[in-house]
Design brief:
- 9% of the residues lie in helices and 44% in strands.
- It is mainly beta and 482 residues long.
Length: 482
């Protein structure tokens, strides 16, 4: 099945509908066998309310956040879901209207409202992008520096963990990196002299590692990390900070595609914060870094790359619901960033495709392989053109330059999977020894199920059936001790 002509309701439309139901500890019906060794919880966040007071949000990325928890014990699966009681959510519910600017939604429709909005300093805390650990707490994240703390068992919201106060800035990433107990991230300070700030957090003690001037900051959803370096990839999708303040347009509407600027890499030493290399490559756009590793005097940076940022427009809610065919997938590309030139001279970054398989929402065996050469990358993919995302793909990367990686897929007609989260089997050694967990919307039943796949073969191990449709989300993680 696929989206039809514009105006037809696509089979996956319910995945972009508001969910009003909240459950606690619902025991799910499971077919086949969930591995007995699988314990802990898969906790995800994503947009789940797309209208407030009769007005719809503009973009998939804008909906109000809901948390989802799948808890595993002795082959049983229980499910809970709860709206994140962020300030953005509570204000909207109390006032009956959208109150805070999101990625592509501006609450101020009138000229007077936009002028008044210039004097407001509230950033959105609508943490609908990812779930991770910061300061030894599990938090929900969005792209503002306002992670929201919550109880991982009850999903009760506990308040904001505001690291922006100690680092300074307005835009961050929902994809921090981890190296032991150290957590690395970055934040953008917009102003007359804008700055990228890379920082490290260890046990709640935050330290700025590097400050890099940015005349026209790029939109960067994520960044790279190898064993010794952090990597900023500045896509030529950039903004004049004055536009953010005075244009009256939603956040992402102020960015401009400038392919002539190329893709610029800055490599920063994790130990010292010094700039180790700069390089320029062919223009592309990406939401997600897959990995980075060092080899032969260079840093290899793997991206899920699009040719340009048109994907942002393609993910507007009206377009996703319209039935217009949609491709929401990228291609794996590897950029080679030379080391040894220092910060003074900009080198040339070469690039090559790693696979011809469509992929997005990429995942790896992060705990054991982040910053090292990889064999396996998992993600969502596309089997039938125009069908949104309709499969789970595993790509086995080739060790030979120029040779495309082999791939296998899981696909069932009418089913639309989300990000596959890898959980390693205790005691396993191989990179793909474990299972994948993915929330799948089944258009034939208008409900969702949790899919458990063998990570090596993509053979199905089990399904746990949810009593409602879970709106399409973005990211989450498995937490062994929760």
């Amino acid at each position: 099945m696929r989206g039809g002509a514009a105006g037809d309701r696509p089979p996956y439309a319910t995945g972009f509908a508001t969910l009003g139901r909240e459950l606690t500890g619902e025991v799910l019906r499971v077919d086949a066998g969930v591995p007995a060794w699988l314990t802990g919880s898969l906790i995800r966040t994503g947009p789940a309310r797309f209208e407030v007071g009769g007005r719809s949000y503009e973009h998939w990325f804008d909906g109000l956040a809901m948390l989802h928890r799948f808890a595993f014990a002795d082959g049983r699966v229980t499910y809970s879901n709860r709206y994140l009681r962020s300030k953005a959510y509570c204000e909207a519910m109390a006032r009956g209207r959208i109150t805070r600017s999101e990625f592509m939604t501006d609450p101020c429709r009138t000229l007077f409202g936009r002028v008044m909005n210039l004097f407001r300093t509230e950033l959105t805390d609508n943490a609908n992008v990812n779930v991770a650990t910061l300061d030894d707490e599990i938090v929900a994240l969005t792209e503002t520096p306002l992670p929201v703390r919550f109880d991982p068992e009850t999903l009760e919201t506990l308040g904001v963990l505001d690291y922006g106060l100690s680092v300074g800035g307005q835009l961050s990433t929902a994809h921090p990196h981890y190296d032991g107990r150290r957590c690395f991230s970055y934040i953008v300070m917009f102003g007359r002299r804008s700055t990228y700030r890379l920082f490290v957090d260890e046990g709640g003690r935050r330290k700025v590692l590097a400050e890099l001037p940015a005349d026209r900051p790029a939109y960067m959803h994520s960044f790279g990390m190898s064993q010794r370096y952090l990597v900023l990839a500045e896509f030529p999708f950039r903004v004049n900070p004055l536009r953010l303040k005075f244009s009256g347009k939603p956040f992402i509407r102020n960015y401009r595609w400038e392919p002539e600027a190329g893709l610029r890499f800055t490599v920063i030493e994790k130990a010292s914060g010094a700039v180790a290399a700069r390089a320029k490559g062919a223009p592309c756009f990406a939401f997600h870094h897959v990995n980075a590793h060092e080899v032969d005097g260079a840093v290899m940076v793997d991206l899920a790359a699009f040719p340009d940022p048109d994907i942002i427009e393609r993910l507007r809610l009206a377009r996703l619901r319209s039935g217009e065919p949609i491709e929401a997938v990228a291609r794996l590309r590897r950029y080679r960033v030379p080391l040894g030139n220092g910060a003074a001279r900009e080198a040339r970054a070469s690039d090559e495709p790693l696979s011809d398989a469509p992929i997005e929402l990429p995942r790896i065996d992060y705990a054991r392989r982040a910053g090292q050469p990889l064999r396996c990358v998992w993600g969502v993919g596309l089997t039938r053109p125009g069908d949104f995302i309709d499969n789970i793909t595993k790509i086995e990367l080739s060790t030979e330059p120029g040779v495309s990686g082999r791939h296998v897929t899981w696909h069932q007609p009418g089913c639309y999977p989300g990000e596959p989260v890898f959980v390693p089997r205790p005691g396993g050694v191989e990179e793909d020894d474990g299972v994948l967990l993915s929330v799948v919307f089944d258009s034939s039943t208008e409900r969702s199920f949790l899919l458990v796949l063998d990570a090596a073969t993509l053979d199905e191990r089990a399904r746990a059936f949810v009593p409602h449709a879970i709106p399409f989300g973005f990211h989450g993680n498995h937490f062994p001790g929760v």
